[in-house]
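Researcher: Here's the sequence for the chain we discussed earlier.
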Amino acid sequence: MKDLKEVIQLVVVEKKDIVLSIFFGFLAGLSAVGLFASSGYLISRAALMPPLYALTVLIAFLKLFGFVRALGRYAERYFSHRATFTILSNLRLAFYKKLEPHAPRIFQKYRSGDLLSRIVGDVESLQNFFLRVYYPPVVLVIIFLGTLVFTSIFSVAIAVILLLGLFLTGLLIPAWYTVKQRNSGFHVRKARGDLSTDTTEFLYGFRDLKIYQQLDNKEAALHQSSITYLKEQEREGMQMLTNHSMNTLVTLFVSWGVLGLGAYLVAEGDLNGLFLAMLVMISLTVFENVTPMAVLPRHLEDSKRASARLFSVADDEIPDQGTAQLGAGKVPAIEFENVEYRFPDETRQALKEVSFKLPSRSKTAVVGPSGSGKSTLLQLMMKFHRPTLGTVKLGGTDLELLDEESVWAHSNVVLQENHFFYGTMRENLELAKDGLSDEQMEKALAEVSLDFDLEKSVLEKGENLSGGEKQRLAIARAFLKGEKLWLLDEPTSSVDALTEQDIYHRLFTHAKEDTVVLISHRLTGLEKMDQIIVMEEGSIVETGTYKELMAKQGYFYEMKQIEKNVFS
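Model: Thanks. This is the structure I predict for it:
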């Protein structure tokens, strides 16, 4: 219910449209009751052959009620749907505001297909919250109160029967089906998430599935997910249909009760027979407003589950409490003090008691075998993760106190995998910063040995670029950004040796007065580094300059000899 409260808060923001939709809904519902009540009275009255002017007045009332009903229904639909669309907009905005700060960490906990299902499917589910959950009970109660007051003028006993019918169809039966709907709703959403996940993986992995001849197996799994989802939808639909049928059955029994009791009261002389048809028509009409209550349990449970799934994505994350700014133009030092880190739901420590100091303007390489914790180290510097134990300082300030947006804004970052958007080369380079000229972008491309026109098309994820071209384009973006902190994770792993040497030369020219942290599995070209940190199994095993480590003939020296033997 906590997550649903957030949705309710977003709903009540649209006070004006909500009040107007409730008012016009009440007007339309009460006009419908008035229309049928006056019709019943007109039939009874006409049977007694009254003066023509009396019938004329009643017919005029019929036309008035019909006109008001149509106008009220139109206005109610207009304002309620306008409120819904605005609420949906507010909901998406609130969700993305919560999600955005955690975007770098989110894919480690959720699969992309599941996220897509939440962002699209669950948000769409919540569009029914106002129209099918929040709004109907309010209008129903108001209409019934007005009807009960009017009915009690003629017969309190019949008003009590209507009240009993309201209790059964508006509260008891929906509550019963709400309990039954819980398990069904959970299974539908889970099946939808599984189907979305399987579809996404099938599309992304189609090429590999073809290569390894596993396409049929994945197709079978996807087909099974589809069948499961359809069956869960069918089961949920049957429950909703049963609920609707039960409500309709009860309302018919109530109308029969009104007719029987009314006939008895007329026979006893406690009710004018002229009003019997009117009261029966009221009982038939007023329960039309109970119809939405038949689907309320489904939409209520759907909204609960959707809001829980939606906001849990962001609520599970620790909110960023940092407010301090890194500061533009400053060249930060980096310090790790007894830092430990373990990924969620893993027992193995990714980092163990890591401590080091990187002075301002220093050039540091972090090397070691795959899985030694090099990339994790860099991710902690960027505040993608937070240490399990210990402290990370950037520019002398605890990273916990720094606003993560400030850290990202003042860092030149090149990761192992960099995203490229569908568009042109110019549009992908303009991500670096605003106001770049064509000359600046062309110069950056030339510095990384890319002979591309700025209008060259780039496909989604850079599918028309090779691995080396993607890395060089990412480095060109870093050159254009021009901040004072460089965080580079295997930036040239897919680039040939000669091009790599040229890129490093230009990199050190750009970063001459900056702080540079380079993660690398290659041991060549590290002679210019002020410090080399050697890692193994999450711990630092050696530190020093290139000459010091080679002279020590320790772990780094052995790695260097292995590299020479492999590539000689």
